[in-house]
Predict the 3D structure of the following.
Amino acid sequence: MAITAFTAASSAVDAPKRRSKVALFLLLPGLLYLALFFLVPLVSLVITSLQVPDPVVFGKYTAAFNIQMYGEVIGEYGTQILRSFFYALLATIFALLFSYPLAYFIGVKVRRWPILQGLMIVLVIAPFFISFLLRTLAWKSILSDDGVVVSALKGLSLLGTQDHFTGTPAAVVFGLTYNFIPFMCLPLYTTLERLDVRYLEAASDLYSRPFHTFRTVTLPLSLPGIVSGTLLTFIPAAGDYVNASSQFLGGSSSTMIGNVIQSNFLVQLNYPAAAALSIILMAIILVIVAVYVKRSGTDDLV
Amino acid sequence: MAGASASASTFADAGADLQLVGITKRFPGFTAIEDLDLTIPAGSFFALLGPSGCGKTTTLRLVAGLEEPTSGQILIGGKDVTATKPYQRPVNTVFQSYALFPQMSVLENVAFGLRRRHIPDPVGKAHEALRLVELDHLAARRPTQLSGGQQQRVALARAVVNRPALLLLDEPLGALDLKLRRQMQLELKNIQTEVGLTFVHVTHDQEEAMTMADTVAVMNKGRIEQMGAPEELYELPRTAFVASFLGQSNLFTGEVVETTATTIVVDVAGKPIVVPTARAARHSGTVTIGVRPEKVILQTTEPAPVAGENVVGPGRVIDVSFSGVSTQYIVEVPFLGPVIVFAQNMVFGPVVNLGAEVWLSWSVDHGFGLADDPSDAPRFAADTDTVSIALQRREALAVELED
Amino acid sequence: MTTQEALALDLTLDTKRGRRPRAGRFGLGSLILPLYSALALIFLLIPIVYTIVFSFNDAVKTNVSWRGFTLNNWLRVCDAPGVCQAFGNSILIGVIATLIATVLGTMIAIALARYRFRFRAATNLLIFLPMATPEVVLGAGLAAQFLSAGIPKGIGTVILAHSMFCLSFVIVTVKARVAGLDPSLEEAGRDLYGSPAQVFLRVTFPLLLPGILAAALLSFSLSFDDFIITYFNSGSLQTFPTYIYTAATRGIPPQANVIASAVFILAIVIVVTAQVAGEKRRKRLMKQTAGV
């Protein structure tokens, strides 16, 4: 899938695949590990979400089948759930608008100079190499009330003197967008880098002006990259809570489902609630992935 | 001659002249084309022939507008189009890789150019073009679902449907197998005559060029060496490159020792060889003359001297090579070097065996004289002809062994 | 160098360029795009520059306002309590998790690319899902599981967690590499009397090594920078990211900036060197094979 963003996948001839016991030996350890530490935790979550509080000890829960938890949780945190997906959607759209021209420039226009191309891509993924938290904090400082940006905007009367930027939904979306730009840009770049320029030449030869060529040739041919990038951005963004947390860019009106899960699990020790919310989040994500898989099959995923 | 579609088109009537004036194209590191002048008359099927790297594809791309010349002008139908973009020129290209848009159906591919120019009834015209190449039944398929030959025909239809003043074909038959290629050559020729467009066909296959084109230009290292009808180029080459690139030639260098009203006599390693003046570009000094291998006759006994015939020999047959229609013999003639002879296989088996002693003769009228000054070119100047290279090496080896 | 060796070497360099024509004169205004790209890249680098700059800040308690330039933070990195320990923990966890993930992942990648087996679709899905699952869910799930199993949170649980989510990324990276290998190289190895084990050790594995190293690097960086999953499963153990998170309320010491900057610079140097070296090698090979 999109993870070809991280690798220069070359499409060589497929080696003939053999049937052998060796395959089993190679697969089993890793798959067992995944089953144990991925599937089992998910099952664990489901079980936990159905538990009821122990009547005696606070913070302890006993096995039960309390489906009501889901209803409660949706009722209480419905806004946050919707808000998370809304923010994620916005962040994805902004990231796409930001990244596409950049990816196009690096992948198509700079092809003549491979070293420059490589360096520019390194710059795109450079944010990855500095701690996620520190970059978000950096923005918090830069965009804080006494920072340069806000002062300038206030000076230009674009912001009222009472307004602030950090702690608002806008700041959260900004943070999400920034942090996920590399996730959007890389798959786009991978696809655009492979774009055969001869199609563009053929279109121009057939009287198509540049913008029309972009719309009818470049865009459709880069669609796989767009889809990959969108999935890679939207899914983690929906579950993010660092950006929205109040130590960072968020405020009380912009909490996302991630914050809720975190506070329920680690602070309030309300494990069933946290588990139920996690399952709900996971379910929605699975639906999106299922739609994608239905269209493109599973071979492309890994 | 069928004209352009009668619709609201800003392009000239079908089949416009193409003129390249003083075109130079430099890339960083090398010059692809140097001071090229070329005029292609309207309505002709023109072939640009040359080895890889000679600049023919660059020339095509310059005409299409996909490259900008470093200097010079390009005129289509008398209009200077040098500064215009590809989508502004009445030129369409059939690309070597076909470049069919994979996300569109075959029909949409063919209709693409028509839609861009807002020609009415693009779908109808696209179907018409597909019928011309006999692929209308595959109109709904995607290009990836077609075979190579079918894709090539779709690419052709996509270009032809626009009735451009100039249709450029960039080695479009390269990926096809022999039989299909022959078929497509005939079809292309038919379509060109039927529709009346000016075709400019770029290829390195000299057989293809000679079969299809009305006019052939042989290009070498960014320049046109000779241009004319295929027969003219073949029977009367002007340069050693053309003589060796188009078919094969036996070339000999010597001094002109005698000139008469109609002939020149050249002294090649002691033997007098007669060449008609009308077929010799240079009449004095050191010249290179030649004769085509199929015009040379093998004689097993020394023939009596006849007027109008050149005889060399005796020589020894050093190679016999069967190639279906004919057999190629290489005869080593002392002081002359290896001479190639093609003899049509009228009987089974070779007419002479390896090692046999033979004489070679050919009609004087079949000889030609090159315009090259041999003092700057080695005897077999065509470095792209592997036969010459092999012969040169063999010759060098023979000399070495003799010493 | 034989053509076979050159071919093998070319495959290890993992670049695929030069066969398609370069982009010519098509575009959205020849100046807008480069200008936009330059601005975009500058925008992306702003927080990085900020972080690096503030690592030189002569800060007292909080590192938010600039007070003066000093090299002190760089020279006395471990002065801030807990920073170096957290950093050390992150490194340790990263190394171990990378080892586990790389070994298991490479095995699976080879199996996926080279062997037929049933339940391929299910396997693909199982490998893909961790990458698609939000970190909160993974973190909460693992924490819930450890809770019910009675395993105390600590370095062990963190390592187990990290190995899990790195595994999928390793698989994808290595698999792409395996799929790109020319099968005729291994066939040649077998043709020349190599047993399967020998062919693997002497032909396949060396060719895969760059991909495996890339996967290991990816895995390590994912593990090092992971926060959410770690936070759910670390208990009292501090990794570098959790240290920053908890320090965010009272003020992050500039030493944290120093460590982050150092890691950043190191990472950039490694990546850029690999790229430039790869490109130079490719160019050199092209020249050599052209003469063959």
Notes: Residues 82-256 of chain C form a domain with the MetI-like fold fold (CATH 1.10.3720.10). The longest strand of chain C covers residues 115-116. The CA atoms of residues 102 and 216 of chain C lie 6 Å apart. Residues 1-27 of chain C have pLDDT under 50 and may be disordered.
